[in-house]
Design brief:
Elements (H helix, E strand, L loop, with lengths): L8 H14 L4 E6 L18 H7 L7 E4 L10 E5 L4 H7 L5 H8 L3 E4 L3 H8 L5 E4 L15 H12 L4 E4 L1 H9 L3 H21 L9 H14 L3 E2 L4 E4 L19 E7 L1 E3 L2 E2 L2 E7 L4 H20 L6 H18 L43 E4 L2 E4 L4 E4 L2 E6 L2 E4 L11
Parallel strand pairs: 1-5, 3-4, 5-6
Antiparallel strand pairs: 1-2, 2-3, 7-10, 8-9, 9-12, 10-11, 13-16, 14-15, 16-17
Length: 416
Amino acid sequence: MLRHPSLPSSFFQKSRSKLKAELPAGTAAIIFANEPLPGEADTTLPFQQNSNYLYLTGIETPGGLLWIYPDAPSEDAREVLFIQPPSPEKKLWEGWSYGIEEARERSGISEVRPLSEWNAFWRRMVNRVEAVALDFNEHERQTHGYFPSPAHRFARRLQQELPGHRIVRLAPILTRLRMVKADEEIALMREAIAITIEAYQTVLPLLQAGVMEYEIEAEVQRVFLRRRAVAAFPPIIGGGERACILHYTHNSQPIQAQTLVLVDIGARLGSHCADLTRTIPVGDISPQAEKYLRWIAEVNSYAQQQLKPGISIEAWYKSVSAFMSEGMKAHGILPHDAPPDAYKRYFPHGLGHFLGIDVHDVGSRYEPLPVGAVVTCEPGLYLPNEGIGIRIENDLLVTSNGCENLSAALPDLLGM
């Protein structure tokens, strides 16, 4: 019943096998599905699944949990999925949702039970485990404050009722596993990238003076929906000085002639994302703007040459930032005696981030990159006083001898 393509159940089986191999002896892992968040009046906010739960089960509906305990005394208690089967009322109002058999087929888990059986199951198993591994969102960009997720509430309950049981952090294990993309994931991301490239090809002839930024956004969304995808993040369509606002999403102004328009978009196809940026001229731009645009394309090429397994994102950033700093001096943006960090005034963000189930996917920017990681490469230059904001972003797969530009079919200098 889902309109988008999905990863095969064998992928989720392999993901769970990898997790089982990493769990300490005597440790049971519990991974909760996300729950719907209330909106205003009788509404709920758009649902987004817990990415780790999705990675391990493929189930996209709220209100379930996955139990994994390799040391369980019986086979039927080593891997159990608990879901909330649809009620007749839910079917009436919302239609299809996973039933027991459908969840079993989707996840590849033979033991699928109604969520109503969880409490009794937990009480039977709790005295057989020494520690419980729980999944908390530990992403370094999660700066919005504490949110009482199902895992938080369960941890509090465990500490109150059974303080002798240890709580183990599951996030570091799953982060390491998710950093290396399986062949099935890479294939799905290639398709998401191809859809994103199609959106660029669709909107390129529409980038004309007088066209509203939201009209470009509408065409992007149309391509995504027609190809069974959705936007992985709110599209950024920023003309002129608005391109200097890193996460500009108002998309409310008319495009001006003889300016650069920054378009940062990405499709999410099923469970995986693309993330591409191009800065596109509208009409004849100034020689200065063209010089800067071509230079950032050179920086992107240089950065791709530096990316290889074993380098960390942090070390990669420092290497390319030093290259950019010298380039800014050569272009007269910085004085030759500028301090080492002066480039940050004109390039204030990172060079790239992990990409996968999430746009800003999990992974440590301080650890060596493994073969199979997918990262973005997005050098930029922002000169608000000149009304120039430039960013060129590609999606790169780390390979044994360097990297592959998964988005190579889209020219860096689009529209030139």
